[in-house]
User: Fold these one by one.
Assistant:
Number 1:
Amino acid sequence: MAPTTSATGITWDLSDLYASPADPQLQTTLDAVQAEAEAFAQTYRGTINVPGGPAPKHLLEGLRRLETLYDQLGRPAVYAGLLFAGDTAKPENRNLEQQIEQRNMAIYNLVLFFHLEWLDLRAEDAQRLIAAESLAPYSYYLLNARKAVPHKLTEAEEKLVNEKDVTGNQAWVRLFTELTSSLEFPLELEGEKQALTLDAILTLMRHPDRNVRQKAFTTLYAVLETQSQTLAYIYNTLIQDKLMMDRLRNYSNPMQPRHLANQVPPEAVETMMEVVEQNYDIAQSYFRLKAKMLNLPKLEIYDQHAPLGEVAAHITYNAARDVILEAFAAFEPQFREIASLFYERNWIDAEVRPGKRGGGFCSGYPPSNHPYILVNYTDNMQDAMTVAHELGHGIHFWLARKQTLFNFDTSLPLAETASVFAEMIVFEHLLGQTQDKADKLALLCSKIQDIFSTVFRQNVLTRFEQAAFAGRAENRLTPEQLSECWLEANQRYYGTAVEQTKGYELGWSYIPHFIHTPFYCYSYVFGELLVLALYGKYREEGKAFIPRYVALLEAGGSQAPETLLKDLGFDLRDPAFWQLGFNEIRRLVAWAEELAAV
Ligand SMILES: [Zn+2]
């Protein structure tokens, strides 16, 4: 039985998509899209990759027809996906989702040639079309698609790589997942012997009792130690595999595929990382303050996330709604209006019920419809912040509906801008309302620590990956070498403010991002610093800033992040831009110091 909370009964209304899983419109949509896909193939197959390239008008009409087709194709899939998320235990939901996925794939395959022909077109012809005036609304989309061209293998090679990957790198990733999820961490808690999972023991690093944290830390690394040879071998093999594929695909360095996917210039990322390092001293002075607050001479690694007071205040769903809408209204009335739609028109599924997917998300596709939000609301402040976060996404999707489908989707570095910004608005609003000094300090410290985890720690992780890749290019990596890279990257961050407790040298060994998505971590740094810079601008300029921020959200994915941010007056390659975010972090830490001193 799921607990009854103040959100019980708050469920979404999906009837804007379809009336029910039995709605005949579902099949009607799919049949119509299939017929259109066949007609589209009849008209366009073999007409894009032609000598001299197609006429701009022909390409434009094709893109527009495809957008309409994808939009229609998206509706049944989104409906089935939301039904499934709402009740994953119902077999009919799973079946519907699989059925629709299969039909979607078949229809998608009918029109895939259009994209492939665009990629196969001679470079000069493609360039001419990208520059054509009539194709201007799609020029960034067309240009971005072509970025994959220099890194493609032949069709036969791609097929071979795909098949070999199943027993190659994917098998090593699976081994990592199976190994780390089967590990048991024996721990005596409250007089009871328990065998904890990795997730459960990591959660204990936030326990208020220092003895518990210390015991959990020791157990965590003692168990990891027994697996360190295997974990190092897995990581070493995956690095070697990636280095080989990068060479075959003509990538000049291991981070390049990620930069291309993120649509950001590599120089901007390097500049960002250097600025983060120049600001490690903020973290160190916060850690010294925290040691004082905990009455410790110095923090150990396992003290970093020790809670400072109680932040998990009780808050009902409706009270959270009122706070969020009030905070949004104070920022910009339009934000309140859009967020109100989600509440009034039942676009949010907030109750906790058996079978419902955990966590939270906002689904904004396709742009011709409106977004939906799923959260599991259990009456605490953290859940209220999750609602604010998802509403930020919702507002972003709503505003970006001005764009056509190919220009709608935000690139990854900007994908969390509106959501984290919305959290920031609500956080500052709450802070302003909190009278009690201890509560205020607890709220502030938890925000500061969240920011540190996103900005500083993810930067450390990226530096470690760089060092590991550089080391592997020379020879096979041992656990000791990986530990050395790890401690060195961490040392710069912690300085003399936090003791790198014995055992921590294996901190690299369980991080899933290193295994699943190499060099992903810097995207978090990018996203958070951008939000802090935007927030700093807002505090500096007040209302004058808002129209430019709205324009950024309305632009969706119609341009590269660098271009969109230039319109806001931000230069990603300038260290001063990245420093703006740290000014905000400094402000928050100074505030905490001031509150703690009294
Ligand atoms: Zn998010």
Number 2:
Amino acid sequence: MTFYEEVGGHETFDRIVKVFYREVADDPVLRPMYPEEDLGPAADRLRWFFEQYWGGPSTYQEKRGHPRLRMRHVAFHVNPDARDRWLTHMRTALDEAQLSPMHDAIFWEYVDRAAHALVNTFEPTPAIGPDPQQRPDLGLSH
Ligand code: HEM
């Protein structure tokens, strides 16, 4: 059995990713980073990736090619704050999914390590952007 099958297959990954993006939708730092109005397509891409990574269908490869995650994140401002927010929302999603302690630990260890590896800047989150209304006030404007 693959990890994908052990945790309940597509339904489980669908649930994890849905909860994750439900949290992202309310995050004032992460939400403006997602280029599309609708988070559904981004949720699909993350789910395809996880499903493939854990031994499920290789839809990600078919639709997106090689993951090259670090390269694909270069366009985004992934500082430690963004990383910690991302991980907080993934933690919420995993808590709601209620995997076995062993599966939870394996999943978490991977995303925690990957998120740390994807940090590409230590500059603070820019206070200006496409939607300034949604940005937190970091006291950066003078
Ligand atoms: C560290 C904090 C992270 C931030 C702020 C972040 C942010 C983003 C953003 C803004 C996108 C573009 C959304 C889209 O249109 O698809 C994206 C895409 C993606 N992210 Fe992340 N991400 C983070 C960590 C991770 C981690 C840890 C993984 C996997 C282990 C991951 C996997 C992906 C995948 C698979 C895509 C879609 C790539 C594609 O095919 O275009 N991300 N991420």
